[in-house]
Amino acid sequence: MLMRTDPFRELDRLAQQLTGATAPGTWSRPSPMPMDAYRSGDEYVVVFDLPGVTPDAIDLDVERNVLTVKAERRPAAVDEGVEMQVAERPLGVFSRQLFLGDTLDADRISASYENGVLTVKIPVAAQAKPRKISITGGEPGNRTVTGETVDDTRQLDA
Predict the structure, then answer these.
(1) Which DSSP string do the residues of 27-43 spell out, in sequence order?
(2) Of 3, 16, 63, 115, which is the most buried if we count CB atoms within 10 A?
(3) pLDDT tens profile 13-43
(4) Phi, psi (rounded to 5 degrees) for 152
(5) pTM over 0.90
(6) Which CATH architecture has domain 2-151?
(7) Residue 73: CB partners within 8 Å, gap ≥ 6?
(8) What whole-number distance in Å separates Cα of residue 97 and Cα of residue 5?
């Protein structure tokens, strides 16, 4: 199971909307990168929108079941003497952290980046997948379940 970790995300977004755009040429704290997460079969897929970010400006790290995604959007090269009229695209470093539950296999995470979209695939750990347990027969009154003998005789009181 994935858990989102930024409880103040909506508050930050609202504050940015209320204060308006930053002054031209200034750097502000960028809004968090938007993401979607869903389960597909035996893996979780997390998709991050990172338009304008080059693949070499993206870092993925896993430490103690915490997946950290960092990306940097750098300013476009502008010729000298050019005066910026509107600067609404956030620049700087974006970062998101996801706590990965114990049921996920953090050692087998894979990622791809195409057309400004980072896709991270996190497989479900083998021990967390549903499995069938075989029941074998035994002598009457007892049954064996995966090597353990369970007494299922019942005594009726008259």
Answers:
(1) ---PPPPPEEEEEETTE
(2) 16
(3) 566 666 654 444 444 444 568 999 999 999 9
(4) -125, 35
(5) no
(6) Sandwich (2.60)
(7) 30, 50, 52, 53, 57, 89, 90, 91, 92, 94
(8) 6
